[in-house]
């Protein structure tokens, strides 16, 4: 299974409560029991101290790694189904089942009555290569800055299986070529036979249930769909908090496509941020 660890190390981590398992509602369950078929559960390792240096901001955070309790045969079954049916949208399910997601805790958000939260979808080109075709990298850095400025910090949920809104890096590369031919980011997905947004937020919701419990959250996002998706998993008290950063001439059209798709961002804000 993808959560495999040396049995002795695994037992040591469980005994020290550095390896736990939670269900979809964020409740602790026995990490020794076999995973129940058809039900979501996550294995979490941490906390792990991480000193970070992001731009001009230096901070100490706690890192948790989280992965679904997924048996290998379940992943193989999804892969076979993908090959047999050609249903590209199954890729998001396959990616979610294998992704190791992360939680970064900045400061002491457990003290906050309404903590600041960012659920950030992985973007290799933006977060790592600093590409300006999107604003993902600056949004990630700005979220960390905002949490660092908060009295009690915040929670950053980093979704590793969300590359290209859930289509994966390979398909995302193809969409970039289609965008260079004139399609926008959503049209390019459709041209590949994919949904405009394939992301699965069930893992993010389970992590928020565990770390935030039933407190209201201020979610750094401009995307109403993300809010609705998280609410569908039982996180009812979410206040969207506008989160704009990194808009340049290179990604203005990309941002306009997101606006037309439903993101809460106006032309005046796009022009203002680029000055």
For this entry, give a set of tags.
275 residues, alpha/beta, Rossmann fold, 9-stranded mixed sheet, 12 helices, 40% helix, 22% strand, globular
What report would you give on this structure?
The structure is a single chain. By secondary structure, this protein is of the alpha/beta class. The protein has a single domain (7-162, 199-243), classed as GTP cyclohydrolase II (Rossmann fold, 3-Layer(aba) Sandwich). The chain has twelve helices and nine strands. It has helices spanning 7-15, 72-85, 90-98, 124-128, 136-149, 163-166, 169-180, 185-191, 202-212, 224-231, 252-261, 267-273, and strands spanning 19-23, 28-29, 41-54, 57-68, 100-106, 116-121, 154-159, 217-220, 238-241. It has a nine-stranded mixed beta sheet with strand order 2-1-3-4-5-7-6-8-9, with helices on both faces. Helix 10 (224-231) links the parallel strand 8 and strand 9. The chain is globular and about 55 Å long.
Beta-strand residue percentage: 15-25%
Residue ranges: pLDDT <50 for 5 or more in a row?
Answer: none
User: What's the pLDDT, averaged over the residues?
Assistant: 88
User: What structural category characterises the helix and strand content?
Assistant: alpha/beta
Count of separate structural domains:
1
What percentage of residues falls in helices of 4 or more residues? 40-55%
CATH superfamily: GTP cyclohydrolase II
Main pleated-sheet profile:
9 strands, mixed
**Strand arrangement in the largest pleated sheet:** 2-1-3-4-5-7-6-8-9
Question: What is the H-and-E element order?
Answer: HEEEEHHEEHHEHHHHEHEHH
Number of helices: 12
Rg, nearest Å: 19 Å
Q: What is the highest CATH level, the class?
A: Alpha Beta
- Number of extended strands: 9
How far apart the termini lie comes to: 50 Å
CATH topology: Rossmann fold
CATH architecture: 3-Layer(aba) Sandwich
Shape: globular
